[in-house]
Every structure is written in C-alpha cells, then in structure tokens.
Amino acid sequence: MSGAALGLEIVFVFFLALFLLHRYGDFKKQHRLVIIATLLAWYLCFLIVFILPLDVSTTIYNRCKLAVNSSPAESNGSYVTPAPSKQKCFKPWSYIPNGIMPIFWRVVYWTSQFLTWILLPFMQSYARSGGFSITGKIKTALIENAIYYGTYLLIFGAFLIYVAVNPNFNLQWNQLQTIGIAAANTWGLFLLVLLLGYGLVEIPRSHWNGAKRGYLLMKTYFKAAKLMTEKADAEENLEDIMEEVRKVSESIKYNHPLRKCVDTILKKCPTEYQERMGRNMDDYEDFDERQNSYPSEKSLVKLHKQVIYSVQRHRRTQVQWQILLEQAFYLEDVAKNETSATRQFVHTFHSQEPENKIIRYFYTPTVEWYWECLLRPWFYRVLAVVLATFSVIVVWSECTFFSTKPVLSLFAVFIQLAEKTYNYIYIEMACFLTIFFLSICVYSTVFRIRVFNYYYLASHHQTDAYSLLFSGMLFCRLTPPLCLNFLGLTHMDATISHKNTQPTAYTSIMGSMRVLSFIADGFYIYYPMLVVILCIATYFSLGTRCLNLLGFQQFMGDSEMTSDLIDEGKELIRREKRKRQRQEEGENRRREWKERYGNRDDSTRNRVVHTDQKESSFSETNTNRSLSKYTRSNGRTERDRIELLQDAEPLDFNADSINDDPLEADSGR
C-alpha cells in the first residue's frame, strides 16, 4: 500500500475539482486556457488539503522510528527525538516513502505561487480585454499589470538594497526564499482570518435556518425582488449597448478597414439582435461616398468589452431567475404538503428536466413527503449543532494554540493522545476533519461573497472568466497559510510547539520562520485571535447592518425595507405562477384536442389536399388555353398597354395619405 493512498487521493481530488468547475464554469463557451488555469489552481489547492493528513501520519511514524533507533538523550542530526513508548511503532497503511513528499510539496507550492502572482492576474486582464487580436489582448494585459508587478518589484528591490548595504545582515538564498514565503503567507493569513471568522458563524446558522420553512420562503421572496431589479437593469443595459452596436454597424460598411472588428462584435451579440441588425444592413454603400465620423479602433475595443460583459450579465440573470422560480415553487409546495393527510408529496408543476427512472423508483412521493416535511428539518438542526460545536472548538484553539505547557488547543490534545498509541487511522481522520472544516469555512465564503458585478461565482455554468480566475487566485493565496494555521493548531509546527523534533515535509518546504522573529513570534500567534471579534460581529450581523445603512438591501427580519421587498417578491412569484399555470393549461387543451380530433383532422386534411390538386390541375388547363388564345394578339396588347401607361396621371406623393381601401377612406381612418 506504499504510495497507493497518495495516488488515489490525487485522482479523486482531480475529479472533485473538475466537477466543481463544471458546475460554475462553461466548458463550451469559455476559453480553454481559462478553464485549464482555473482547474489547475483549484486542483492544487484541494490537493494540499487532502494530502496534508498523510504527511502528518508519515511524520509521526518517522519520529517513532528515529526514537526507536536512538536513545532519549541522543541526537539524530539536527533533531533530538523523544523516547518512544513501550509499544512498538508500526508502519501506517498510508505511509509515503522518504523523499517523495518534499518533492511533491515543492512542485505543488511553487506552481500555485506562480499561478496566483504571475499567470492568473495576467490571464484576468487578457480575458477582460476587448481586443480583436491576440497581440492586442496581450498588450492590454501587460499595460494593466505593469503597475501591479512594478509595485512588488519595487518593494523587493528596496529590500535587497537595504540588505546589501546593512553589514548586520548576512542573508543567504534560503533565507531570502523564506522571507518571500513569509510575506506571501502573511498576506494570505490576513485575508484568511477575515473569511474564517465569517464562515465559522454563518455556516452553522445557515443550516439552522434551513430547517425553518417560513424563513427560507421569505428569503426566497426577498431574493426574487432583488433579482428582478437586477434583471431589469441588465436588460436595459443590454438594450443600450445593442443600440450603440447598431449605430456602429450602420456607419461602418463592408469595405471599411474596421469592418472585421464590427463583425467580431456582432458575433458576440444575442441571435435576435444579430438578425435585427442584419435586416437593416446596406452593404452596397461605400463608406467613402459620404463624409461620416467613424469610430476609432480604441472605441471599438471598449464597445467590444462592454458587449461581452452585458451579454454575460443578461444571460446570468435570466438563468438565475428561472432557478429562483423553481426554488420558490418548490418551497411553496413543501408548505402546502406539510398538512397533507395522504402523506404523499404533490408538485404544482411537473419538472422541466427529464426524470431519472432509478431515482423516481426509490424516491417515491411518499418518501419525498417524509424527507421534506419530517426528516429534513431535524437533520438540518442536528447538523447545525455539530457544526456549531466544531466552530467553538476552532475558536478556542485559535486563541490558545500558542500555549504548550499546558496544551490548551483541543486539536493538539487529540493528536497527541493518538500519537501515544500510534493510531494512524485516528490521526488521519482527526487531521482530515479539522482541515476539511477549516477549508469549508474559508472556501464557502469565497463562493458566497460578491463584489458588485466584478466578482461573482454563479452556479449552473454562469460564472464569467474573470471571476473564475480571481477565485483561483484567492484559493492559491489562502491555502498555504490555512495549512500552516492547521499545523499550528495541532502543534505539528516546531515554531509553535518549541520542540526540536522532525518537522513535517510541508513545514520543511516553508523554511524556518525564525529568520523573521517578529512575524513568527508575533503576527502568526496573536493575529488569529481576532477571529473571536469577527465571529461576534458576524453573529450580530454587523456587516449586514452596515451594508443596509449604505443602501445595499440585505435580508434583515426587523427592517421595513426587507418587508416591502418580501411583499414585492411574493407578488412576482404569484404572477409567474399564474403565467406558468396558463401555459400548462393551454398545452393540456392542445394535447387533448389532438388526441380526440387528431385522426379526423388528418382525414379532412387529406381530402382537402386531394381537392386542391384537382382544382390546380383544372386551373392549369384553363390557363394554358387562355395563353394560346391571347398569344396571337400579343403585339396589339403590348401597344395598348404602352398607350395606357402614357395616358395615366402621375400620383400625388405630397398628399397627406394614400389609401387604396375605399372603406377606410370613407371612415376617415
């Protein structure tokens, strides 16, 4: 089994990252490089989280093996190993041979850092650019990132000059590398604590509120009102942009040098707008015949960027509106079925997606009623209590993990108790549950937050390229400090435990933080305590209240604005429900009519076609006879027609109206 666990987790994590990316991204419409870069960033970050427990169990086994081969007072290289217990240590089932983990962590860490600090920011600017060629997009991306990269180079260059001039510093390459890692981890830890403080409270509270049917339904009405406003704004913005595209398309004709750029913009527009603009085109008019003011290439690049953004936003709001409608209809069905005497779940509307026969065989209406109306609320309550317990343990350990005598961090206590008995399965499970819960609290916040319309992870393939790349940047910057924080909570980091023992392979790659003592002994230890203040602020919804005061409507039960939006959303859902009911009733009537009169209509249609064929053949015969009759006098008919045309009076086009219908003329219409 040596190395088999590592291989299995590598494959499993890859498919997990691919599944999540498929849920949020669109493989068919988005650029392949964007998909590959985001998948690689997510994959590496998830891989670190899943592989780190194996590193911990392997390190504990190596410590035991070193302790068996040496006496308590004997040193082994740079590590002084403690005396082992009387029980003989054995190799864990997931043991990874020596030399593999350091290489693995080095490749994973530096690849993720290259992605987050160099490649992904460049690809963000490239994806957001409105250029019409690869060269133009690269040029725009370089210009936008010049300040970004220049700031870091300036700070790093000033630091190198200071070290070179000051004789008290004698830094080597390994120490400079450690300083760079410490600077990146400090930035990540600053953001990590903010996101962790929000997730530790919001995740248990969201599951507890998930058991309240009335709460979920009211919040759905609130979301419907806000989404309708955003949807109307997106439609209006798209109309304005399409009007500008129409004007540009009409002014720049087929032989203009910038016509290729206009065609590229038109391809990004929705189909109905393309057809509308195509009907109004006059490609036979030369652009040099009239002296018009034509837009420049720079303005077309800006227009191209606006078209991409507006079309993506319009499509996203349309899809989210349909999803929200289905959610609201389902919650209303749950509220109605709670008082059902038959204990069978009845849906108001049939599902628009094809149903899986295997799922419907086991998930019958009776099973669905028991799950939705009885079991699911209690399951969410129990899960919320378990998550709240984990949150309390994390907050306590974050505030006390620096204490080594006595050991106050509960995660460190659990790991040390398992280490005495060398129960590797328990060690790996405890480590995995701990770091998995921390990752859920942090990563779920990344998926939930929304920075206006610039960063927003929307499910059902509605996330744009910019947001996908930005999420990859955040994951790569948050994961290394998250893992170091986990090792500090479990006292597997020698910087925290103050023991001269063999470190984990992950810690050895990070280097010794003793080079920067004010960071190792100060910031890394005391800054995570701020999670207590952030948890209290999240519990009392201080951030939500501040946003509400600034004019950003948030769901608050004691707000008058919230009540108004709930009523508005309820009316919108009722209106959409009536519309769908009328559609289904019309479809049912047409289906019944077709089933009842379908055969009769077919026979009648056949008789009509047969009669038309007879009439058409008879009319063709008469036409041929009349043509043969009048061909003899063809010359005379032509002369009469010419005379009639010469004697005809010209029409008065200056009249107020021209009407050929005498009835409408008499009526004065």
Can you offer a commentary on this structure?
By secondary structure, this protein is mostly helical. It contains 22 helices and 4 strands. A two-stranded antiparallel sheet has the order 1-2. Strands 3-4 form a two-stranded antiparallel sheet. α2 packs antiparallel against α13. The longest helix is centred in the last third of the chain and has 71 residues, at 560-630. The chain starts with a helix and ends with a helix. The relative contact order is 0.11. Residues 72-81 and 620-669 have low confidence and may be disordered. It is found in: Membrane. This is LMBR1 domain-containing protein 2. Residues 658-669 have a biased composition (Acidic residues).
What string gives the helices and strands in order? HHEEHHHHHHHHHHHEEHHHHHHHHH
Multimeric organization: single chain
Tally of helical runs: 22
Helix content: over 70%
Distance from N terminus to C terminus (CA atoms, Å) equals 91 Å
Structural category = mainly alpha
What is the arithmetic mean of pLDDT?
Answer: 81
Secondary-structure map with pairings?
Elements: H1 4-24, H2 32-69, E1 75-76, E2 79-80, H3 100-128, H4 134-165, H5 173-210, H6 213-251, H7 259-268, H8 271-279, H9 297-337, H10 357-362, H11 365-400, H12 410-421, H13 424-448, E3 450-451, E4 455-456, H14 465-489, H15 494-497, H16 505-510, H17 517-526, H18 531-539, H19 542-549, H20 560-630, H21 634-647, H22 662-667
Antiparallel strand pairs: 1-2, 3-4
Helix pairs in contact: 1-2, 2-3, 2-13, 2-14, 3-4, 3-14, 5-11, 5-13, 5-14, 5-18, 6-9, 6-20, 7-9, 12-13, 13-14
